[in-house]
Amino acid sequence: MRIIIVKDYDEMSSKAARIISSQVTLNPKSVLGLATGSTPLGTYKELIDLYNKKEIDFGSVKTFNLDEYYGIEKQNEQSYHYFMMNNLFKYINVPLENVNIPNGNAKNIEEECLRYESEIEKEGGVDIQILGIGANGHIGFNEPNVNFETRTHLVTLDERTIEANSRFFKDKESVPKKAISMGIKTIMDSKKILLIASGEGKAEAVEKTIKGKVDPKVPASILQLHKDVTFIIDKAAASKL
Ligand code: PGA
């Protein structure tokens, strides 16, 4: 486990973007595992910047996102499809046929979860998975009291997650209660993991993840058992370490 403590959000973002960019330079056909939320936004901005400076070429990469809300259209502004398109994909040269995000609106959710897993497998697995962390210790939408053995599956969102994500919706009631998420097994199968965290609100989750015991109550704590995981944490998020 490598822990890099940086000054602030901007430094976290540029370091994370440099790591992703090195990965793509070393292997232009990299399979990137991507995340949504406020934390990776700065990283995506940096990646767009590196792309504009011709320092990175996404022409052959494949991407798999961690999760998507259940029962939401791709075109919906709250969907993670929309988020990824408008915060990254439309500004870089990744071919859209190389982009994968669970279909939260699939008729048969079980089939969709299996399809998603088999697509990841077909590409030889994720080379580097970017993760944020919830204040409750979740990764993807794998909420506290997680089953560490799960693969992509339908999850019920934790009350704290609904509360946290309500900032993107008109009110708390409008936040979907379910989502499709890569499971812990899917995440742990990634060859490398890069977890980024910023702000005091994440300090407790970061502390439990790194210093606590591996515990389903803190889903991210499982990362202690991954053989190639890097945490980039700003000072505020690292304040309880
Ligand atoms: P955030 O979400 O980046 O919006 O804080 C992180 C997460 O819930 O995984």
Automatic annotation (TrEMBL):
InterPro entries: Glc/Gal-6P_isomerase, Glucosamine6P_isomerase, Glucosamine6P_isomerase_CS, NagB/RpiA_transferase-like. Pathway: Amino-sugar metabolism; N-acetylneuraminate degradation; D-fructose 6-phosphate from N-acetylneuraminate: step 5/5. The keyword Hydrolase applies. Residues 14-227 form the Glucosamine/galactosamine-6-phosphate isomerase domain. It comes from the Bacteria. GO terms for molecular function: glucosamine-6-phosphate deaminase activity. PROSITE patterns: GLC_GALNAC_ISOMERASE. It is an enzyme of class 3 (hydrolase). The active site is at 67 (proton acceptor), 136 (for ring-opening step), 138 (proton acceptor), 143 (for ring-opening step). Belongs to the glucosamine/galactosamine-6-phosphate isomerase family. NagB subfamily. Catalyzes the reversible isomerization-deamination of glucosamine 6-phosphate (GlcN6P) to form fructose 6-phosphate (Fru6P) and ammonium ion. This is Glucosamine-6-phosphate deaminase. It comes from Clostridium neuense. The gene is nagB.
